[in-house]
Specification:
Length: 600
């Protein structure tokens, strides 16, 4: 249940595009492919000085500020000399992005999300670092940085297909999906399915990564396919992810945690932040987005490694952080893989900005600095004995999983049964019949959170309740579930969070209460209007305000005051109420501001 602490502060105030084609991609690194066949593409991101009002249209640069023509010319020459092109990172015009920003509620109090200042530079990879240095020196540019390639958190998933004869009918593997079972071993999805909407009905989900088997036999009912980008690389990883979430309820193979949710995909054939915004524009409030990606961090100088040691969650990079904020500002729950780098994300190392980051950047892994609003997921051990293996105490941190205060919840990071790979069933040349018993990593953990949240949202929708906001979803995940356990050398203080328990989570989402109170009093002089505000009310509360005159008593038999209530989305999880009180009489009026919380 939410806190009943009174909201703070009562002070009077005076009234008052298509994805880029192959020829336009950012250049690749080395051979251009990860060991799993995923394209490796570095990205050069530029942030323009907001006051420059920079505009880029089909490679032509201009400024809407008088007197900037010389600076625009020098910037154009700098890019032309390198054979480079500058274009808006988020795919639409700067003016449209500014307009959209004005319509969104801020995630961080007091800031406006402005995606219009972000650009990507298309240039040969060997020129990116030098070009970034030159761009940083230009007066129109606030920041320019090169991002290491994004990769799926999948270094553990090297399973080989069995290549046995295809069965006439695929067996039912659902009994091997222990993560569906009651808590504490699983998330108790089978309980959620007994409830109206509990299989995710009415919820839309987009998985963002690189490739999927769009024709897999267990992804035929509610899988809408690819809705953005171009697939590349091996499809097993993505196929296993969406199988966990939305595998069909059909009596054979596996079943997803939320089989009634509508799944679709967006491919990272474009900069990751571009893909995040594209996906967000296809979803609505209460829907869910999954980011199956991490990057090489500063621990190993941002260098790609086969073991993915030192890889971290992508919100550390400014454009990805703001793209996530954009999605969360639209009410979309963003689930972000915490990464397989084995990193302590509380390490002071992450306080140091990357080369070329903007001057005001602060470490987002410390949410006291700023908060993207995502739900960040760690990888925990499944119950010992699952599939005959022991990875340590149930719910203990697996050694590869990143950890720290940022982590909100954990899912199974080993022994996940799903579609793809073919180690459980893998007939030759029939990948649409492949299944795995060993999907692993924060890759396998994060879809468990997505499916769990889809079940909750489905139950809430089916019962006429408001779906969880991103902040409320995170709050409930941290307050419920099966606690993380210690392992030798990996104590629970290395936080990855609780494993969700749908029975608890749904119960908490439906908990409510009602109460009334008088928050403050005020005085309005005759014939005047004054405004007060009351900040930091939980956004999921239903609140009614009444302004009641207390003295003097009316002698005229007519209204003494008129009031109006306006609201401001202070942050993802908080509301500010603005209360304007007008005195309609010829004498000063004392009043009392009363509220009624009707529940949530």
């Amino acid at each position: 249940m939410a806190s009943r602490n009174k909201p703070k502060g009562t002070q009077p105030n005076a009234p008052g595009t298509p994805p880029p084609s192959k020829s336009r991609r950012v250049a690749v690194v080395g051979e251009g492919l990860s060991p799993q066949g995923t394209p490796l593409q570095r990205e050069l991101i530029v942030i323009a000085q907001p006051e420059s009002m920079l505009r880029a249209n089909s490679g032509r640069l201009e400024s809407h500020v008088l007197g900037e023509s010389v600076e625009i010319s020098s910037l154009s020459s700098l890019l032309a000399d390198a054979g480079a092109m500058l274009q808006p990172l988020f795919g639409v015009s700067e003016d449209r992005l500014r307009h959209t920003a004005q319509l969104l509620s801020p995630v961080v109090e007091g800031t406006m999300l402005d995606l219009s200042v972000y650009y990507q530079v298309q240039a040969p990879d060997e020129q990116l670092d030098q070009l970034a240095e030159r761009l940083r020196e230009h007066t129109l540019i606030e920041a320019a940085y090169v991002k290491p390639p994004g990769e799926p958190p999948q270094m553990l998933n090297d399973m080989a297909p069995s290549f046995e004869q295809a069965p006439t009918v695929t067996p039912d593997f659902s009994t091997r999906q222990g993560y569906l079972d009651p808590a504490p071993g699983g998330v108790d999805a089978r309980y959620a399915w007994t409830l109206n909407g509990g299989a995710g009905a009415g919820v839309r989900i987009i998985d963002l990564e690189w490739s999927w088997r769009l024709g897999h036999e267990d992804l035929m009912q509610n899988f809408a396919g690819l809705v953005g980008g171009t697939m590349a690389g091996a499809a097993n990883h993505g196929t296993a992810v969406i199988g966990e979430i939305g595998g069909d309820s059909n009596g054979f193979g596996i079943i997803g945690i939320a089989p009634d949710a509508v799944m679709s995909t967006v491919a990272f054939s474009m900069p990751s932040s571009t893909a995040i915004r594209m996906a967000a524009d296809r979803l609505g409030s209460g829907d869910i987005m999954l980011l199956e990606i991490h990057r090489a961090g500063p621990r190993n100088n941002f260098q790609a490694r086969a073991d993915q040691q030192g890889y971290i969650a992508i919100e550390w990079w400014p454009d990805d952080f703001d793209a996530i904020r954009y999605a969360v500002s639209r009410g979309i729950i963003v689930v972000e893989a915490g990464g397989n780098g084995g990193e302590n994300l509380d390490d002071p190392l992450y306080n140091t900005p990357g080369a070329g980051f903007p001057a005001g950047w602060t470490n987002p892994f410390n949410r006291a600095n700023r908060d993207a609003g995502a739900i960040v997921v760690g990888a925990g051990a499944p119950p010992p004995g699952t599939h005959g293996h022991d990875h340590g105490p149930d719910r203990s941190r697996l050694d590869f999983s990143n950890y720290g205060a940022l982590m909100d919840a954990q899912g199974w990071g080993r022994e996940v049964t799903s579609c793809g790979y073919g180690d459980l069933q893998g007939p030759a040349d029939q990948e649409d019949l492949w299944y795995t018993d060993q999907f692993s990593g924060t890759s396998s953990a994060s879809p468990i959170l997505v499916g769990t949240l889809a079940c909750v949202q489905g139950v809430l929708r089916a019962n006429g309740r408001i779906p969880l906001s991103p902040a409320r979803a995170r709050e409930l995940l941290r307050a419920t579930g099966s606690a993380q356990q210690d392992a030798v050398g990996r104590p629970a203080t290395q936080r990855i969070g609780n494993r969700p328990d749908l029975r608890q989570l749904i119960g908490s989402a439906f908990e409510t209460n009602t109460w009334t109170g008088a928050l403050f009093t005020g005085v309005v002089p005759a014939g005047q209007a004054l405004r007060w505000f009351s900040a930091s009310w939980p956004a999921h509360w239903h609140v009614i305000w009444t302004i009641v005159p207390t003295t003097p008593q009316s002698q005229a038999g007519s209204p003494q005051i008129r009031y109006s209530i306006q609201t401001e989305r202070q942050s993802d999880g908080l509301i500010t109420y603005w209360i304007t009180v007008s005195n309609l009489s010829s004498a000063s009026i004392n009043f009392e501001a009363r509220y009624a919380v009707l529940g949530w």
